[in-house]
Each structure stands twice: as structure tokens, then as C-alpha cells.
Amino acid sequence: MDTHSAFAPFDLRVQMSETGPPRKIDPxxxxxxxxxxxFGGRLRSRVTCGECDHNSDTLDRILDLxxxxxxxxxxxxxxxxxxxxxxxxxxNKYKCEK
Length: 98
Hints:
Shape: flat
Number of helices: 4
Radius of gyration: 19 Å
Strand order of the largest sheet: 1-2
Oligomer: single chain
């Protein structure tokens, strides 16, 4: 179980005690909860064209990172693996926007 899953029920109860029964909440407003303030962030994914060096960035809202810890010697090594450059080839090949 990750931290987000552990705190989600508690966060919902706190919101209900403050605002009544749950209703559809604007995603930007949902990010103001204490769970998002403590654990939230943004993850930037960057793809660089191998031919013209054009960068394409995507920002995703996150509450946690899914880091593979098997086969690594430390958390630092796992983080290095997480941010390592990955060359896209074949069917996964990047199509440049330019």
C-alpha cells in the first residue's frame, strides 16, 4: 500500500466533515487538500528528437513515484534508473512535432 492509498479514506472523511457529502470537485480544487500539499507534485517527461533536437515536454500531476527497486543497490540507484535516458525505436519511435 502506498501513502496515497493509505491516506485517501481519511482525506475523504475530512473533506466530508468540512463540506458535507462528496460531490464532483474541480481537479484544481482537489489539489488543495492536505494530501496533495504534502505528497503532490508534477512530473516532467521530456522527449527529444534525435534528428533536430526539438524538446517536447509533458507535465503530469502526481502523488507518488512508481520506482522499480528490484535489481538495484540503493534508492539512489533506483532514482537514477527512473530518470535515465530511454531511446525510443521501432513502433515506440518518437514522431517529432516540427
